[in-house]
Specification:
Layout lengths: L2 E7 L9 E6 L11 H7 L1 H7 L4 E9 L2 E10 L1 H9 L10 E3 L1 H18 L3 E10 L2 E10 L1 H6 L2 H8 L13 H20 L19 H8 L9 E3 L2 H17 L8 H15 L4 E12 L12 E11 L2 E6 H5 L3 H13 L18 E4 L1 H9 L1 H5 L3 E4 L6 E3 L4 E9 L10 E9 L2 E3 L1 H9 L4 E4 L2 E4 L2 H18 L5 H10 L9 E5 L1 H11 L18 H16 L3 E3 L7 H15 L7 E5 L4 H11 L5 E4 L10 H4 L5 E5 H6 L1 H4 L3 E2 L2 E4 L10 H7 L2 E2 L2 E4 L8 H11 L7 H15 L2 H11 L3 E2 L15 E8 L3 H18 L4 H20 L15 H15 L3 E6 L2 H14 L4 E5 L5 H13 L5 E6 H4 L8 E6 L6 H8 L11 E8 L3 H12 L12 H4 L3 H8 L7
Parallel strand pairs: 1-5, 9-13, 14-19, 15-20, 21-28, 21-29, 22-24, 22-26, 23-24, 25-27, 26-28, 30-35, 31-33, 31-34, 32-33, 34-35
Antiparallel strand pairs: 1-2, 2-4, 3-4, 6-7, 7-8, 9-10, 10-11, 10-12, 15-16, 16-17, 18-19
Pfam families: DUF3670, Helicase_C, SNF2-rel_dom
Organism: Terrilactibacillus tamarindi
Keywords: ATP-binding, Helicase, Hydrolase, Nucleotide-binding
């Protein structure tokens, strides 16, 4: 038995799906032996054309003189058209055949296809007057003249199958056929043809976007049946009447005498479905979770149904968003304007709702939360948010309280001791675990369930409180130690609205922290074995070191150079030995080689009863068996060089204390020396240095890592947390935080502080400007020219090496050409030498002693020879790094005792710039400039220190118009009063660009 596939045109159906497909038998009775969707799936062409675009439904149609309900499906108009013009439509697929309706529609679609392909269609404008308003529509009409004059319309009327039109009682057959042709053609053009490319529309597209005519033009390319404009003002009506008249005149040649009937039927059709004016009041978003058990879970999706509430004929009425925006172009504009005013809160998909056929969208929990939290603001902009009544939400806008409770573990043996902690977090009477708090903030989730209620927490307050919580958690880590708790105590901010976190500690921790954070109020009595006298500030320093030992933490005594760090350390050592009268381990002191004899002499002066052993020279004890020789030794003194070389043999021994003198020697954390120092086993660690940080913050980390391993965290984390923010961004907050963290372990007093010392004389500093001579200037310029030529072609490490080597050469030229040449030059062939001799002359006349610092050993020899040449009766001494400790000490004693009246002590900056006490000198000359003012000050303080009773004159020589003067300017700009960060030694200079490098080194005016 053959089954026929039928199609009927339903004009009052959905604007897109106006065709309804169903099945009949050979006698046009309803076929019930097949389900239509199964047929579509079975039929190759139907499956390909319609399978994804059908909508199952029932339809009442006139069948065999009576109304019958037929089951089938609605099909889009463009899908039907594509199906009809497909050549495969003629292929038979038994037991199915094309019904009479499909064959009829196939003929109409073929005609419309020809018209469309040949451009036989035109845009049209018409209006409907109803409910005291004028509704204007756009439409694409076929060339009616061709359809009528070709007798096609007459033929179709004669051959019209009974089932091809389902019109209801509103329309007769002729009207139905007219609507089939005009509505299908309109839809065909909108769906199949790029309207904006049509040349005859060019004139219309130029109108202002806000004019009614522009709306008509825009409406021609949209899929909708709504009017493009509703006019209720006389002026708008007059304008549109003129537009309509112009368009009719333009299309007159395409019309036929019978065309008005088709247009009239179209206008009647539109008029029939126009409802009374609807006045929108607000947008309603009805939200409903698809997973009611976990509505705010990140994977739960919500349905959001969009309704419009308003008035129609004085009655309140709600309609779907699709029904609303289909009413008119103005309706869509009203909807869009409401959304754009609050666009930051609205889900993006809501803006595209007019492009769909659904009145609901799917939104995420984040979007729901955003809508909910903006409820009041949205309502003030006529957008109402509705949640399901069963979703019980309670508001909580209370302040957040975050408390960290710290308590000591089983014992307090030092900063590495483990501690216990517990978080107490609450919002009003709602308690949160740390995990809940973290999850809420990370997911930006303000809802939490308690019982049958969902509590809406103040997310902004949660986020504000989380910063402190997260920073504190990162400090504590997985296994918090006492050091972590101490860091928190030092940087803890006072509780406030901006910082709702507080730290609570047990009594034992309070007492421990108080002992560290507050300097001792009472001084410890001076030990009996100490024979010297301590000034008040020195007593406090010695007491502070002893207190740190009791707390089992290391400390850095960073007093200004010359304030007596050595005797404070000796008094501390004497005190610890007296506490442990027997069975004590030896104290280890490590210092520069030049200070070995000084330490020994100071012990002899201030603690003569202690047994001192200097581990130096070829006859020193073997390191592997050092234990056997230390039983009766109180203090072992050695140099950094010796200890680093023997560190593996010595690291098995546990020292009573280890003291690093001039501790800046371990400023580079990655050197073999620094690593060797950190491996030392000792009950207590101390560093003595006047410059705990010379150039970089990493130096401070290296010192603290030796004193209290792990306190400042791993080096990489320290760089991220402090070095980059402070050195690169000058972050003052981070700088303050770091200062607070290290304060308990660093004690620094300065000579300029009158409360520390009142009897120190003045220090007079002058910068002496020198002029290059012609030889120097010529050599200097040649080096600059070579750099300018080579620097533009080098990069990376090679570029840095080139810059640093050039800077060294230029500094040496400023000192003396002999540093770069082996030629037989005159010793006086230097402008700086000339100024140096001028300075020496009055000093010699007053029979005063002078220290001269240079960073180049060869320059030291040149100065030595030059002074002897001009002052044959002068005593000239030269201390440098290649001398043995014995020879260095002999030079120091000779300088102190010399009475010739013309005494000059030349010292290389590295060998003689630290640790020496040379208060016999009242003049200090820095012959060449170092990159770091802290190093120069340290060298100056060989003379300007306790024991100096005369004013000290300091001269800093630099050549005018050269690199030296420019470096001095840059250093002055880069000085930081708190930490003296001036970059990575000379390294910061290598980061300058080519132009900056040239500006740095070029010769300026008046250089000779």
């Amino acid at each position: 038995m053959t089954t026929h596939i039928q199609m009927t045109f339903v004009p009052n159906a959905n604007q897109d799906q106006r065709f309804f497909m169903f099945l009949t038998d050979e006698e046009d009775n309803i076929a019930t032996n097949f389900r239509l969707l199964n047929v579509i799936e079975y039929h190759p062409l139907l499956n390909e054309s319609l399978n994804n675009y059908t909508q199952e439904a029932d339809l009442s149609i006139q069948l065999n003189q009576r109304n019958q309900t037929v089951h089938g499906c609605y099909v889009p108009m463009d899908s039907v058209f594509n199906l009809m013009i497909d050549p495969r439509i003629n292929q038979q697929v038994p037991p199915f055949r094309l019904g009479s309706t499909l064959l009829f529609l196939k003929e109409i679609s073929a005609a419309l296809h020809i018209l469309a392909e040949n451009g036989q269609f035109f845009p049209f404008m018409y209006h409907v007057d109803k409910y005291e308003e004028t509704y204007y529509f756009s439409h694409w009409l076929p060339n009616m003249k061709l359809i009528i004059e070709s007798k096609l319309l007459e033929k179709w009327k004669q051959e019209l199958p009974n089932l091809v039109l389902t019109l209801g009682t509103e329309w007769n057959t002729d009207q139905g056929l007219n609507l089939l042709i005009t509505l299908w053609m309109d839809h065909l053009v909108r769906s199949q043809i790029h309207v904006s490319n049509l040349p005859f529309l060019d004139n219309w597209s130029q109108f202002d976007h806000e004019t009614p005519l522009a709306h008509w033009y825009e409406n021609l390319s949209h899929f909708n049946d709504r009017p493009f404009f509703i006019a209720n003002h006389e002026s708008d009506v007059r304008k549109l009447e003129q537009y309509e008249h112009d368009i009719h005149d333009w299309t007159e040649d395409l019309l036929h005498a019978q065309s008005p009937d088709m247009i009239h039927d179209l206008i009647s059709f539109r008029s029939y479905y126009i409802e009374p004016k609807y006045t929108p009041e607000k947008i309603e978003l009805h939200l409903d979770p698809m997973n009611p058990d976990q509505p705010f879970h990140s994977e739960t999706r919500w349905s959001c149904q969009i309704m419009i509430s308003g008035y129609q004929q004085n009655e309140r009425k709600k309609i779907s968003i699709i029904d609303f925006i289909n009413k008119s172009h103005q309706a869509l504009e009203w909807f869009g304007s409401k959304l754009y005013r609050v666009s930051d809160l609205i889900p993006y998909s809501l803006f595209n709702i007019h492009q769909t056929t659904s009145s609901s969208i799917v939104v995420s929990p984040d979007e729901v939360i955003q809508l909910y939290q903006g409820t009041s603001f949205l309502l003030s902009h006529d957008i109402a948010i509705h949640l399901p009544e069963w979703l019980n939400i309670t508001e909580s806008n209370s302040d957040i309280d975050v408390q960290l409770e710290l308590e000591a573990g089983d014992s307090l043996f030092g900063l590495s001791s483990l501690i216990n902690y517990n978080w107490r977090i609450s919002v009003g009477n709602i308690n949160l675990t740390a995990a809940e708090f973290k999850q809420l903030v990370k997911q930006k989730q303000p809802f939490i369930k308690r019982g049958n209620e969902w509590i809406h927490l103040p997310l902004d307050k949660l986020i504000n409180a989380y910063d402190s919580f997260d920073e504190t958690s990162s400090v504590l880590g997985q296994q918090p130690k006492l050091a972590d708790a101490l860091r928190l105590q030092t940087i803890a901010k006072r509780k406030s609205k901006k910082n709702p976190m507080s730290i609570n500690t047990t009594q034992s921790l309070d007492e421990y922290f108080a002992g560290l954070l507050k300097k001792p109020n009472k001084n410890i009595p001076i030990p009996k074995g100490f024979t010297g006298k301590l000034r008040p500030y020195q007593k406090r320093g010695y007491t502070w070191l002893s207190n740190l030992r009791d707390k089992q933490v290391g400390g850095c005594l960073a007093d200004d150079m010359g304030l007596g760090k050595t005797i404070q350390a000796i008094s501390y050592i004497t005190h610890t030995l007296e506490l442990k009268q027997k069975d004590h381990n030896t104290t280890l002191i490590i210092c520069p080689t030049s200070l070995l004899a000084n330490w020994k002499r100071e012990f002899q002066n201030f603690a003569p009863d202690l047994t001192i052993y200097v581990h130096h020279g070829p006859n020193r004890y073997p390191a592997k068996s050092i234990d056997r020789y230390l039983k009766d030794v109180d203090v072992l003194i050695t140099s950094y060089t010796i200890f680093t070389r023997e560190s593996e043999e010595l690291e098995h021994y546990t020292w009573a204390s280890v003291i690093l003198d001039e501790g800046q020697a371990i400023k580079n954390p990655n050197t073999k020396k620094s690593r060797a120092m950190r491996r030392i086993k000792a009950d207590h660690r101390i560093i003595l240095t006047g410059t705990p940080m010379e150039n970089r913050l990493e130096e401070l980390w290296s010192i603290m890592e030796f004193l209290n391993p792990g306190y400042l965290g791993p080096l990489q984390k320290f760089r991220e947390a402090f070095v980059r923010p402070i050195e690169k961004r000058q972050d003052k907050q981070k700088s303050k935080m770091l200062t607070k963290m290290i304060q308990p372990f660093l004690l620094r007093r300065e000579k300029t502080d009158q409360s520390i010392i009142q009897d120190l004389p003045d220090k007079i500093e002058t910068k002496e400007t020198c002029l290059l001579n012609k030889t120097q200037a010529s050599l200097y310029q040649s080096i600059v020219d070579e750099l300018a030529h080579r620097v533009i072609t080098t990069e990376g490490i090679e570029r840095k090496g080139l810059i640093l080597s050039t800077l060294t050469k230029l500094k040496q030229v400023c000192d003396h050409p002999l540093l770069l040449s082996n030629e037989d030059l005159n010793l006086d062939e230097s402008g700086k030498i000339k100024r140096f001799l001028d300075i020496l002359e009055p000093i010699f006349e007053h029979r005063e002693k002078t220290l001269v610092f240079t960073q180049y050993v060869r320059m030291g020899h040149i100065l030595e020879n030059c002074i002897k040449k001009h002052y044959s009766d002068a005593t000239v001494l030269f201390l440098h790094g290649s001398l043995t400790a014995e020879k260095r000490q002999a030079l120091i004693e000779s300088f102190r005792s010399d009475q010739s009246g013309k005494t000059v002590f030349i010292l290389s900056l590295k060998a003689g710039g630290v640790g020496l006490n040379l208060t016999e000198a009242t003049h200090v000359i820095h012959f060449d400039r170092w990159w770091n003012p802290a190093v120069e000050e340290q060298a100056t303080d060989r003379a300007y220190r306790i024991g100096q009773h005369k004013n000290v004159h300091v001269y800093k020589l630099m050549c005018e118009g050269t690199l030296e003067q420019r470096i001095d300017e840059l250093i002055e700009k880069k000085k930081n009063l708190t930490n003296q960060i001036i970059g990575n030694g000379e390294g910061w200079l290598t980061e300058l660009d080519d132009k900056e490098i040239y500006e740095l080194v070029r010769l300026r005016e008046r250089v000779f």
